[in-house]
Amino acid sequence: MRREEKALPSYAGRRHTVLLLFMLAGATLIWRAVDQQILEKDFLQSEGADRYLTQVEVPAHRGLITDRRGDVLALSTPVDSVAANPRLLGADTQQLVALAKALAIDPEALRAKLARYSQRHFVYLKRRLPPAAAAQVMEVVRVHGIRGVHLEREYQRFYPAGEVFAHVLGFTDVDDQGQEGLELAYDTALRGDPGAKLVLRDGRRQVVDDVENIHSPRGGKHLALSIDQRLQFIAYRELKAAVKRQRAVAGSLVLLDVPSGEVLAMVNQPSYNPNANRSNRRGRLRNRALTDVFEPGSTMKPFTVAAALDAGVIKADSVIDTSPGYFRLGAAQVQDSKNLGVIDVGTVLSKSSNVGAGKIALALDKRQLWQAMDKLGFGRQVGTGFPGEVAGQLSDYQRWAQIDQATLSFGYGISVTTQQLAQAYATLANDGVFVPATLLKRDIPARGHRVFSRSAAETVRRMLESVVQAEGTAPDAAVLGYRVAGKTGTVKKFGPHGYSDDRYLSLFAGMAPAHDPRVVMVVMLDEPRAGKFYGGQVAGPVFSAVMAETLRLLNVTPDVAVDPALRVAAAGEGR
Question: Of the listed 298, 352, 409, 506, which one is catalytic?
Answer without folding.
Answer: 298
